Amino acid sequence: MNMKFHAAALAAAFLVFSCGSPAAENERIPDENEITEPQDDTQQENGNDGSGDPGSGGTGSGTARTDPYDPAKKPDPGVIEEPLVVLPRPQLTVMFYVTDTTGGHYIDRIKGAAVEYAGYTPQYDNGCEGWESFNGVSVRNISEFARMDVYFPAGEPDGKMVIICPGGSYSMVADVFEGMAGAYYLNPNGTTVGVLKYRLPNKTAAEAPVEDVLNAIRYSRSKASEWHIGKIGVLGTSAGGDKADFGVLLYPVITMGEGAHSDTRTNLLGYSSKYGSADEYAAAKVYYSQEKNVSPETPVTLVMYSENDGAVLPDYNGKAFYDALTENGTGSSVHVFPGGGHGWGFGTVELRGSDNIAEWRDDFFDVLFQFISSL
Prior knowledge:
Rossmann fold, alpha/beta
């Protein structure tokens, strides 16, 4: 592993906003030292414990439709869920690595009205080939077409930019209810929002999504004057480390050891059989366990989760990470909801017709907005 890159990213690699295939309430969590061999390489898209994971269709009651695109040109995603409100289109899409958007890959219909090309050279290859699949809710099979959609506020900018890294257990990028919906609610406060469509590790390249987060921050910094931003934060991920000014974590997957979300760990690190020994696999799990990599230089972070999250166990993840932040004097904060389970994101009643934290949604927005405005 590239330890220098790891240090710069501060133990990055966790796009931890949500998990696309959460564990059931009674699913046994593998022991930290257990080596799990593959049984089924298929990732389930539908949730779990009734928490309604936005990244996977969940239990929201939006309008279902059949994908309108030509199935001869890309995979058929089947029946999908759409938001009840038409979400704004981004004003800009930044392509990190390619110099045009043609060439056989599918770029989803919600790309920006304008496109810019960063011209970066990727250091890592996740091995994904062929068409991207966009089912109106999430994107799969992202390769060198990694990109960031940028949403600018209509009013006076507040000087902050939030780069949202939607979740999906590293099997998908839950673009709508964890990405676009975030821009829908943050833009009116003057916050500029970037929604990152990062390369999935594909059980091959755990560094690939980290590199995309770092490049999103890098490009945004280069546009700070033009975009009227002074501070850049990352929502939904601890990737970026000291390269970001602040972080926001919602029901995060933090650990790769005991209490880990098994699908996320497998998608990120690959199966244990790819490692030369049990010790090597154990070292990889420690390397990518965020609670073990906090330092006093870790940016101030707001952590939010539900205490009854049965998919991503808070004691091993959100709580463990907050405890590490506190021990290192980062000035971070935590907000715990008494219910809601996992995967609520920005899936409000307005957008989905139902909301797993409806009772506390106003509280959620108050805490989030106050945190950002305080920076």
